[in-house]
Structure prediction request, 151 residues.
Amino acid sequence: MALIGKRVAQVEIKSKGDIFHELWKSNPHQIPSLTPTTIQNCQTHDGEVGSLGSVLLWNYSLDGKDCVAKTLVKDINEAKKSVTFEVLEGDLMEQYKSFVMHVHVDKHGSNNLVTWTVEYEKLSPSVPDPDTLMDFYKKVAKDIETHHLQN
Prediction:
């Protein structure tokens, strides 16, 4: 069984892709108010929000468990509407040696495609692939979409 893996999840949204990208890039602290059942808190730990090298602390619920993650903003690509986060500390690091998450938005008129890609290395072959986390990301995207369509 391979220890290094990659998972991709895509969600079509009707809300504006630019808004979605800006939220993850410049306003991640607003995300908990848009999807409170999945993400409860996001705080800046170090650096300036919206800039490379900033570190964010997240509180979230996954599989009925309260979890934490400290992430580094590793890349922001305006042309591709993508943001890359590397998990530095937290619950995921109990199972994974490395964990990097990319969120990318493709804009197509009134419909936009959000793509979540995770690249990871497991600590052992018995560690499950992060499939429930991919479902988590889909739910987050739909919660954000629902909020923006209501306003």
Notes: The first strand starts at residue 4 and ends at 13. Helices lie at 17-26, 31-34, 131-150. The chain has one domain: 4-146.
